[in-house]
Amino acid sequence: MKKWIWMIGNNFDDDKYKKSFEKLKKLGISQVLLNSNEATLENLLPIATQMDIKIHRWLITLLKNDKEIIYKHHDWFTINRLGESSADKPQYVNYYKWLCPNNPEVQEYILKKVEALSRISEISGVHLDYIRYCDVILPRGIQPDYNLIQTEEKAQFDYCYCPHCREKFKNLTNIDPVDSTDPSKNKEWLQFRYNSITKLVNKIAVIARSNSKFISAAVFPTHMQKNVRQQWHRWDVDAVFPMMYHSFYNEDINWIEAETKRGVELLDNTALYSGLYIPSIKPQSLSKAEEKAKIGGAEGVSYFNFDALQNYKIKMSR
Ligand SMILES: [Zn+2]
Question: Tell me, what's the pLDDT at 44?
């Protein structure tokens, strides 16, 4: 079982990185999905290489909270079925400002970023996160946190109805999705949005692979694919990391096995690593959760995240 970890590493100095990597190695973790600023990345890459820790750049792909981009490129952001931009009226949380995968300028922006990243020789891979649409329906276990009961696709949470998406879909089907009485029942419209993400992922994968990088993505559990428009089993990536955050779905650890199995069954040549939500797993149950992933057929697990694992004092010192 290969072990991975999601790690947010801003403001780490060299010594903190060395110590952190030593801890990870003791736990058998050698693959780090790292989100950090550029300066931190530059500093830590030689340390990681020396310690034989593989760094995969964890990319927040379609979520954008950059004031300059919002100001200069307001039209890059997704629009819901009420005609509201996610840049102005984000759903659920104020950082839910999403770029539209069908906007050619957005694609160019993301592909350029991946190209630059892929040229860094010490980076082992590119890991895509937030490579999807805003959740039209949230995971059932967290709906109460937002005082919501979501049983159907409501216009407010349904994206994207920007001019690019409407025109592209109209060219294919002669239907403008805003004219549809209930777009949530239109299978072609759903498939169009699945394909919009798939096409972008596959373009990114070509760039990463041409630079010999491993390409992977953090994705939602199988039953959530429709809610975030993520048909991830059709993506041309080396590995998927379904976020099997059982507590988000009011499930227990046993669910990890069944969900891993469902994911593995969908895939042909893509590896699956079960994403484990550490804050909802007691230290004494961690090995059981890993076992469930293994029985389900996963090639390994990924811990979310480093900070949560830091709280596992007993585990860390074993
Ligand atoms: Zn759009």
Answer: 92
Closest CA to 160 of 79, 70, 75, 76: 79
Distance CA 209, CA 114 (A): 11
Tokens of 75: 């039209």
Q: How far is the CA of 274 from the centre of ligand 1 (A)?
A: 30
Residue 159 carries which side chain, given as an amino acid letter?
Y
- Identify the pLDDT of residue 310: 86
Which class for 253: exposed (0-12), middle (13-18), buried (19 or more C-beta within 10 A)?
buried
Q: Please tell me the distance between residue 249's alpha carbon and the centre of ligand 1 in angstroms.
A: 29
Query: In angstroms, what is the span from residue 148 Cα to ligand 1's centroid?
Result: 25
Q: Which residues are registered as beta bridge partners of 85?
A: 79
Question: 69 Cβ partners below 8 Å, 6+ apart?
Answer: 76
Burial status of residue 297 (CB atoms within 10 A of its CB: 0-12, 13-18, 19 or more): middle
Q: How far apart are the first and last CA of the chain?
A: 19
Q: How many angstroms separate the alpha carbon of residue 7 from the centre of ligand 1?
A: 31
Residue 317: predicted pLDDT: 46
Measured in degrees and rounded to the nearest 5, phi and psi for residue 31 equal: -115, 120
Residue 287: which H helix or E strand, with range? helix 286-296
Q: What's the CA-to-centroid distance between 270 and ligand 1, angstroms?
A: 28
**What is each CA distance from 233 to 9, 190, 264, 272, 305, in whole angstroms?**
30, 16, 9, 10, 24
Ligand 1 centroid, distance to 308 Cα (angstroms): 35
CA of 233 to the centre of ligand 1 (A): 23
Averaged over 46-61, what is the pLDDT?
Answer: 96
- Compute, in angstroms, the gap from residue 159 CA to the centroid of ligand 1: 7
Computed over every residue of the chain, the mean pLDDT equals: 95
**Ligand 1: distance of its center to the CA of 147 in Å?**
28
CA distances from 223 to 54, 184, 264 (A): 31, 16, 14
